[in-house]
Specification:
mainly beta, Immunoglobulin-like, disordered N terminus, disordered C terminus
């Protein structure tokens, strides 16, 4: 036999022998497959051998943890007993057998189980729900093996309706009929555990809000919008009414979840308690709002009975127009910070109308009141009504007038002055407001001729016709003060006439009247003189006339008339010739007697005529002292 063949034969022979030996020594374990044990029970694992007379046994867990059991070896068998079974016995157990030089090992898993317990249900958000809500319920249960979760619902007829085999059950868009008892069961091979929860699905609640609030203060004439808002209802229906079912007197507009009642303009008939009724399904909700009216639209008005004049009583009125309600209206009148008068109007508010209320008082202003502030303060302090402002006021700065007085005139240089000169007449007058000055001239008929509105009246290059009475008036809005002054414009003497009556040549014993007249107006001073030696003798004249009774030769001579005033003088002279009578003839004729008697009557008559002519036209007699007196 070839060598190769021998080798092959030998190798195969060895393999057969090994196989024969292995077939002879084996190990078995009972039970053959995994064992499921319930906690508290007693279980035994048996390991047996064949093909070995004296085997050696050992037990262990695959992870070398404690056996938690008792081992008993007897012959070709070894038993591991676990009594009672606990969770610590859940392992993969290995039985190791040694037979001489051979070693065999076999294993079996032990699984521990127990019936479901401690089943718990959690509900989110709540077991009390409203229509349309969603809910999620989660169930947990302890057991070995892990229990399977079953959800179901108890029906009204006693049956159970299976809903889900998941741990979580979610219900959406719930309805009232979804209310009931829901059950969760944890189920495994050993048993089951049940937990129940009751869900209550209530009819969906909705809310109604009314704005701007439970009450609103509305000013008469304004526009007011009342709004009714619904939340939690998809299709609400609205209705508006007053609490006493009077007409709404407004416009309603509803759209979606909102309804408005517009009152425009607000009138007295709108002062009510308004109710908004909302119907959602078969439920109704109602909200109300009280509309209260007021009118306090304008600031008070201050009126005076007249101009404020120092010392004169005046009535001041503080009016509050178109006010409502006026049962608590208060008006105060103040001067500066001092209250002059106040009044509270406690009246019947059942009268619905806009009224003007006023406070009046009379006081006597003084100049010290000028610049002070007069305040009219109106208050409508209705705390239960929310509106602004509840206080209004008006102010007026006092300006106290003073009638013109102490009017004076200053003349420069004088009230008497010569023709051609200028004069300034300045007028002043006290008063508030400062008086306006008006210059006038008094005419002969008593009327006034306006001249100037300047304080100073200036006359330049005056003439005699500028003479007269000038009037200054201080005028303001509360009175007039008047002052007069007489202005005299003088001219130098002129048109002097010096005459001798009956003639400048007379006979001894005749009566002669020396008369001097002047054409000046006003009068000038007239002095009659007779030249004597180196000087003159002043004659005692009457109204410019000097009478010589029974002329003598010594009465002959030069006679002179001097007319003068403050601005000049003028002289005139005549020569009187007195002829003597024949000394040897003493006779008396009837004609001479008649002539003498006639002359004794005529001469006085002529003198009287001259006197009255002077007085009426030229006033030939003039007193310089009297002329200088001012008539201001």
């Amino acid at each position: 036999m070839p060598r190769k063949m021998v080798v092959i034969f030998g190798a195969s022979n060895i393999l057969w022998m090994v196989f024969a030996v292995s077939q002879a020594f084996k190990i078995d374990i009972f039970p053959e497959s995994k064992i499921i044990a319930q906690i508290g029970d007693s279980i035994s694992l048996t390991c047996s051998t064949t093909g070995c007379e004296s085997p050696s046994f050992s037990w262990r867990t695959q992870i070398d943890s404690p056996l938690n059991g008792k081992v008993r070896n007897e012959g070709t068998k070894s038993t591991l007993t676990m009594d009672p079974v606990s969770l610590g016995n859940e392992h993969y157990y290995l039985c190791t057998v040694i037979c001489e030089s051979q070693k065999l090992e076999k294993g079996i898993p032990v699984e521990i189980y127990f019936s479901p317990k401690d089943t718990v249900i959690s509900v989110n958000p709540s077991t009390s729900l409203q229509e349309g809500d969603s809910v999620t319920m989660t169930c947990t249960s302890e057991g070995l093996p892990a229990p399977q979760i079953f959800w179901s619902k108890k029906l009204d007829n006693g049956n159970v309706q299976l809903l889900s085999e998941n741990a979580t059950l979610t219900l959406i868009a719930m309805r009232m009929e979804d209310s009931g008892i829901y059950m969760c069961e944890g189920v495994n091979l050993v048993g089951k555990d049940r937990k129940e929860v009751k869900l209550i699905v209530q009819e969906k609640m909705f809310t109604v809000e009314i704005s701007p609030g439970s009450q609103i203060a509305a000013q008469i004439g304004d526009s007011v919008v009342l709004t009714c808002d619904v939340m939690g209802c998809e299709s609400p229906s609205f209705s508006w009414r007053t609490q006493i079912d009077s007409p709404l007197n407004g416009k309603v507009r509803s759209e979606g979840s909102k309804s408005t009642l517009t009152l425009s303009p607000v009138r007295f008939e709108n002062e009510h308690f308004y109710l908004c009724t909302v119907t959602c399904g078969h439920k109704k909700l109602e909200k109300g709002i009280h509309v209260e009216l007021y009118s306090f639209l304008r600031d008070p008005e201050i009126e005076m009975s007249g101009l404020l004049v120092s010392g004169n009583p005046v009535t001041v009125s503080c009016k509050v127009p178109d006010v409502y309600p006026f049962d608590r209206l208060e008006i105060e009148l103040l001067k500066g910070e001092s209250i002059m008068k106040n009044k509270i109007f406690l009246e019947d508010v059942s009268k619905k109308s806009l009224e003007t209320k006023s406070l009046e008082m009379t006081f006597i202003p003084t100049t010290e009141d000028t610049g002070k502030v007069l305040v009219c303060l109106a208050k409508l302090p209705i705390d239960e009504m929310e509106f602004e402002p509840k206080q209004r006021q008006s102010t007026q700065i006092l300006y106290v007038n003073v009638a013109p007085g102490d009017t004076t005139i200053l003349i420069s240089p004088s009230s008497i002055l010569g023709e051609g000169r200028s004069v300034n007449m300045t007028c002043s007058s006290d008063g508030l407001p400062a008086p306006k000055i008006l210059w006038s001239r008094l005419l002969s008929n008593g009327d006034l001729q306006p001249l100037s509105e300047n304080t100073t009246l200036t006359l330049t290059s005056t003439k005699m016709e500028d003479s007269g009475i000038y009037v200054c008036e201080g005028i303001n809005q509360v009175g007039i003060s008047r002052k007069e002054v007489e202005l005299i414009i003088q001219v130098a003497p002129k048109d002097i006439r010096l005459t001798a009556f009956p003639s400048e040549s007379v006979k001894e014993g005749d009566t002669v009247i020396i008369s001097c007249t002047c054409g000046n107006v006003p009068q000038t001073l007239i002095i009659l003189k007779k030249k004597a030696g180196s000087g003159y003798i002043v004659l005692k004249s009457t109204d410019g006339a000097y009478t010589i009774h029974r002329a003598q030769l010594e009465d002959a001579g030069v006679y002179e008339c001097e007319s003068k005033n403050e601005v000049g003088l003028q002289l005139r002279s005549i020569t009187l010739d007195v002829k003597g009578r024949e000394s040897n003839k003493h006779y008396f004729s009837p004609e001479l007697l008649v002539l003498y008697c006639a002359s004794s009557l005529i001469i006085p008559a002529i003198g009287m005529i001259i006197y009255f002519a002077r007085k009426a036209n030229m006033k030939g007699s003039y007193s310089l002292v009297e002329a200088q007196k001012s008539k201001v």
